[in-house]
């Protein structure tokens, strides 16, 4: 299949990039032998705009996308986070390429109201919508136009290439990286943990409390030194929603702590992720695993094995292709046991 993946490719970051689910999707598509091209709406807009002022290049980016579609003739377009591409442009593509399917993938949380409206808007013109929150939370998007599916955050073996579950010489005992304080009070809990843990372990909080954020290779180096990590969403309110941090930690063999309110125990194997109910429970479990390194390594190894086997970029990409094109699922996808091929709940 010929696939065009529209998403921000971070070209102008020149290597100092964030880990990108859109890039993982591209890798997965290629591994499944799909001829894949990418289109970076934000970068094209900036490159085409007068004086590089991105907002002045939005119209040109939409025209360049139409040119790309005409030249490439994709069978499938996956429109990720590409707000500069209008629904009108996607409608024009459907008119000009009537056999081309269009999917929208959204990896942002539903507790941000503007994101809910963004998904509803895209659902008006695409064939399928994929959201990183659990399917039973997605009824608000049913009946608009598109079929609705849950998608996970995958690991990519070439990116999540560490196995810290095998190491005992790691200097960072606990890690939390963040760069957003909108719609959240999580830093208060992080501060309380830092105060309670004191000097009993090496707790790094890049991006908070005076510690500079880390990107690109600096982030890789931080992960490479870490035993355990906090998987704190900005809010823990939606079934099976987690930031991409979950896959980054699990895929690298880093034991993670996450809220039991998200019900990931219904998806992930037992004794792989540490679930906590409240701040005191979390504090006790951090101390428990810090004091039992064999247990830390065993649980982290189990999570890593599951993510690399059952939630990898190849399966992730093929699931999106199959669901969008209504091809029978070729794998018993762990995250889709409650989803029919047409996106409805079983």
Helix content: 25-40%
Number of strands: 11
Task: Let me know the CATH homologous superfamily of the largest domain.
Answer: Glycogen Phosphorylase B
- Terminus-to-terminus distance: 29 Å
Q: Tell me the Rg in angstroms.
A: 21 Å
If classified by CATH, what would the architecture of the largest domain be? 3-Layer(aba) Sandwich
* CATH class placement of the largest domain: Alpha Beta
Number of domains: 2
Task: Give me the secondary-structure category.
Answer: alpha/beta
CATH topology of the largest domain: Rossmann fold
Average pLDDT, rounded to a whole number, is 95
Number of helices: 11
Approximate shape: globular
Kindly report the spatial arrangement of strands forming the biggest sheet: 2-1-3-4-5-6
Task: Write structural notes for this entry.
This protein has 346 residues and is of the alpha/beta class. It folds into two domains: 2-154 and 312-336, Glycogen Phosphorylase B (Rossmann fold, 3-Layer(aba) Sandwich), CATH 3.40.50; 164-310, Rossmann fold. The protein has helices at 21-31, 41-48, 58-72, 87-96, 113-123, 186-197, 216-224, 245-251, 279-290, 293-310, 313-325, and strands spanning 2-6, 35-39, 76-79, 101-106, 128-131, 147-150, 172-175, 203-204, 226-230, 255-259, 274-276. β9, α8 and β10 form a beta-alpha-beta unit. The chain starts with a strand and ends in a 21-residue tail after the last helix.
What is this entry, summarized?
Helices cover 36% and strands 14% of the residues.
Notable features of this structure?
11 helices; Rossmann fold; 36% helix; globular; 5-stranded parallel sheet; 6-stranded parallel sheet; alpha/beta; 346 residues; 14% strand
């Amino acid at each position: 299949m010929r696939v065009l993946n529209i998403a921000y490719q971070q070209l102008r970051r020149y290597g100092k990039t964030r880990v990108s689910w859109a890039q993982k999707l591209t890798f997965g598509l290629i591994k499944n032998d799909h001829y894949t091209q990418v289109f970076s709406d934000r970068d094209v807009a900036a490159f085409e705009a007068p004086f590089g002022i991105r907002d002045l290049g939005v119209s040109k980016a939409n025209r360049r996308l139409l040119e790309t579609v005409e030249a490439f003739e994709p069978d499938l377009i996956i429109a990720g986070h590409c707000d500069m591409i209008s629904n009108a442009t996607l409608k024009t593509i459907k008119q000009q390429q009537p056999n081309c399917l269009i999917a929208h993938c959204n990896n942002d949380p539903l507790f941000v109201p503007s994101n809910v409206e963004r998904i509803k808007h895209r659902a008006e013109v695409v064939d399928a919508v994929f959201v990183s929150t659990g399917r039973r939370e997605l009824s608000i998007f049913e009946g608009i136009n598109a079929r609705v599916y849950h998608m996970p955050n995958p690991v990519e073996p070439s990116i999540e290439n560490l196995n810290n579950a095998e190491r005992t010489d790691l200097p960072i005992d606990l890690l939390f990286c963040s760069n957003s304080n909108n719609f959240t009070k999580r830093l208060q809990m992080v501060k309380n943990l830092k105060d309670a843990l004191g000097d009993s372990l090496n707790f790094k909080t890049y991006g908070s409390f005076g510690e500079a954020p880390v990107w690109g290779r600096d982030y890789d180096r931080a992960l490479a030194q870490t035993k355990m990590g906090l998987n704190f969403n900005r809010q823990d309110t939606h079934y099976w929603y987690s930031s991409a941090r979950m896959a980054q930690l699990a895929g690298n063999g880093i034991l993670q702590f996450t809220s039991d309110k998200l019900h990931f125990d219904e998806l992930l194997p037992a004794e792989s992720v540490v679930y906590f109910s409240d701040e005191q429970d979390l504090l006790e479990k951090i101390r428990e695993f810090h004091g039992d390194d064999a247990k830390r390594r065993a649980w982290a190894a189990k999570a890593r094995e599951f993510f690399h086997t059952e939630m990898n970029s190849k399966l992730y990409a093929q699931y999106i292709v199959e669901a969008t094109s209504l091809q029978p699922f070729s794998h018993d996808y762990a995250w889709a046991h409650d989803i029919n091929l047409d996106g409805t709940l079983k």
